[in-house]
Amino acid sequence: MTILILFHQSHYRNFKAFYTDQVLVHLRAEFPGLVSYTRFVEFIPSTLIPLCVYLHHCLGPGTGISFIDSTPLAVCHNRRIAHHKVFAGIAARGKTSVGWFFGFKLYQTPRRG
What we know:
4 helices
């Protein structure tokens, strides 16, 4: 879990580069039982439940005030909308502050304590 959290706090956009360039080189002393990149990727799904429990523990009590944020989930490039068939009838065009997209909007309501 710690390595995954470090990755999300780093400037890396690619987990393999982060693991091979940073973790295996610079963090060997902190993690003496490091495994290969391929083996580590196999372990990632097993961190989901402990990570959710940890984050739930860190949240604290809610105040009843929520902030809603939406994240675009684009399913294809705008040029391919007419030919897209996987989410036909479900996905739609949407707009964000960055521009237009075709897909879904994921609404999140983070609790602020």
